[in-house]
User: Which sequence fits this backbone?
């Protein structure tokens, strides 16, 4: 498996993180939340919260698992602290649980976070704990078939598990659970569809490893068409975009005509979409700006795609901006300036960076 295809599948972990894929799990959405027996309550929201063993009805709890060595856990801390602050008056208590020894956690809390605060200060608003015997981890993470942290479990007002996933993705579910609009049944259906999608990606991975990128892309397209849940469909579209990037990057390693041919194949699939063609063409611009060896053939193919996009949507500023960049990459500053002036005249949210690029082009031309 190539490094690039590994990167694609590593990124899928983030996209699947909020899906709570729980094959053959003992603990699932709708299960009664197990009582917790945490050994060390290190932070208590500055006295706002008492240690919890059993969950009270009509209150909502977030039980989150973390570790001092876990980068994503540390990155999630400010977000979790903000959520606790936002929901403190609405009966929500956040309980973050490590399974490390007390000294390790205490030493971590004394460290500076790089922004002038200690981690103790960052997490002071919510309950940060550690449970070295791993009993709570076993009752939640192991029972739910979860093997990666950070993972959060939202316990609803009835004392049952309502949601499982990455804490950075729990804002929407938490809001609905608190205000009573959460539909657990719909979420369970979404989970089932997401689980089916994840299982199918083993075949996508095999196709990529066999250098059958077109077949892998076609399979993802079918999955998008067959998806019935909006969030699953949107996730698949994100993956589709990443797959295009990986395929193009893999082709660029070969360079020359092979890279151009791969790009043209991707562009043909977007032949009627100005947005799709522009996204592909801009990908080449971005790669070139990052120092990738794009080459003349690929630049020409990307320029052709951008020109088609401009014909499909002649009043689209970002498309013209992409075209201007590609003309400049080909050394045709005059055509680049003409395209960029049209882009700037159309205005829009990207007007300022477009103006800045026009100034840059005109400086190159000595105007």
Assistant:
């Amino acid at each position: 498996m190539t490094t690039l295809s590994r990167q694609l599948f590593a990124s899928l972990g983030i996209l699947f993180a909020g899906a709570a894929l729980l094959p053959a799990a003992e603990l699932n959405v709708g299960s009664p939340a197990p009582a917790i027996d945490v050994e060390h309550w290190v932070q208590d929201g500055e006295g706002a919260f008492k240690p919890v063993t059993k969950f009270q009805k009509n209150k909502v709890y977030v039980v989150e698992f973390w570790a001092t060595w876990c980068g994503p856990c540390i990155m999630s801390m400010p977000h979790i602290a903000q959520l606790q602050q936002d929901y403190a008056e609405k009966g929500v208590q956040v309980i973050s649980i490590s399974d490390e020894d007390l000294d390790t956690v205490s030493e971590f809390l004394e460290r500076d976070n790089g922004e002038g605060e200690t981690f103790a200060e960052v997490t002071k608003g919510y309950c940060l704990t550690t449970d070295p015997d791993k009993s709570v981890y076993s009752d939640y993470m192991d029972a739910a078939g979860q093997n990666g942290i950070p993972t959060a479990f939202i316990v609803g007002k009835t004392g049952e598990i309502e949601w499982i996933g990455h804490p950075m993705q729990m804002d929407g579910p938490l809001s609905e659970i608190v205000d009573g609009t959460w539909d657990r049944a719909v979420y369970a259906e979404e989970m089932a569809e997401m689980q089916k999608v994840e299982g199918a990606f083993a075949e996508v991975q095999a196709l990529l490893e066999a250098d059958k990128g077109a077949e892998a892309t076609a399979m993802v397209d079918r999955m998008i068409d067959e998806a019935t849940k909006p969030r699953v469909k949107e996730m698949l579209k994100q993956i589709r975009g990443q797959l295009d990037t990986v395929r193009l990057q893999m082709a660029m390693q070969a360079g020359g005509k092979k890279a151009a041919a791969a790009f043209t194949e991707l562009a043909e699939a977007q032949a009627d979409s100005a947005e799709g063609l522009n996204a592909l063409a801009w990908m080449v611009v971005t790669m070139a700006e990052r120092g990738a060896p794009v080459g003349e053939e690929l630049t020409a193919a990307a320029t052709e795609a951008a020109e088609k996009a401009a014909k499909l949507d002649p009043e689209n500023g970002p498309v013209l901006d992409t075209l201007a960049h590609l003309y400049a990459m080909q050394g045709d500053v005059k055509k680049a300036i003409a395209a960029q002036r049209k882009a700037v005249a159309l205005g829009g949210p990207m007007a300022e960076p477009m103006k800045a690029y026009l100034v840059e082009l005109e400086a190159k031309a000595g105007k």
Notes: The domain at 31-182 is CATH 3.40.30.10 (Glutaredoxin). Confidence is low (pLDDT under 50) at residues 17-24. Strands lie at 40-44, 60-65, 92-98, 127-130, 151-155, 161-165.
